């Protein structure tokens, strides 16, 4: 049985009540480098996004879930994107919003839950992610989940500190 509930966290669909949470994440300039965002998002646009979040992954080609603690605190987001049913693959990304909640295993458990869901429920063949080489915490998280580095895109992203490489990782189901 596939479940989106773990010992420390569970994953749930977006709700209209997540407006402030999503708005805070999308407008946190310290995270823009991760999401390749360059401009702020209005609450109006995020509200519209939430109103359409009910779309099936096969229709929307993406799935965003909220990572919640056992006491229902929203901790972060985990996303599937570029969902390709024909080729049975999707990109995956994760964010734990509050730095105080990082390093506690929440991201590890959320990633494990979503990987199992992708392979067992969605019947995907592979998952991939693109991570800046400077984001050593995320690289370690994905590698510990079995993702394998398959390439490096040289000087791929421009940051305030200059160009940085982006690492491409992949996990193929057994």
UniProtKB/TrEMBL annotation:
Signal peptide: none annotated. SUPFAM superfamilies: Acyl-CoA N-acyltransferases (Nat). The keyword Acyltransferase applies. Residues 9-170 form the N-acetyltransferase domain. GO terms for molecular function: acyltransferase activity. Gene3D superfamilies: 3.40.630.30. It is an enzyme of class 2 (transferase). The keyword Acyltransferase applies. CDD domains: NAT_SF. Pfam families: Acetyltransf_3 (PF13302). Its EC number is 2.3.-.-. Keywords: Acyltransferase, Transferase. This is GNAT family N-acetyltransferase.
């Amino acid at each position: 049985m596939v479940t989106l509930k773990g010992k420390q966290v569970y994953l749930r669909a977006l709700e209209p009540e997540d407006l402030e949470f999503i708005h805070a994440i999308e407008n946190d300039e310290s995270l823009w480098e991760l999401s390749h965002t360059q401009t702020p998002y209005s609450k109006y646009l995020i509200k519209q996004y939430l109103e359409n979040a009910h779309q099936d992954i096969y229709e929307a080609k993406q799935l965003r879930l909220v990572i919640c603690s056992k006491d229902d605190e929203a901790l972060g987001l985990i996303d599937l994107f570029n969902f390709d049913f024909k080729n049975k693959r999707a990109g995956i990304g994760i964010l734990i919003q509050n730095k105080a909640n990082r390093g506690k295993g929440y991201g590890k458990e959320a990633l494990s839950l979503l990987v199992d869901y992708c392979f067992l429920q969605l019947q995907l063949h592979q998952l991939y992610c693109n991570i800046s080489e400077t984001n050593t915490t995320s690289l370690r998280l994905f590698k510990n989940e079995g993702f394998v580095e398959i390439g490096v895109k040289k000087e791929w992203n421009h940051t305030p500190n200059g160009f940085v490489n982006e690492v491409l990782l992949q996990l193929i189901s057994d």
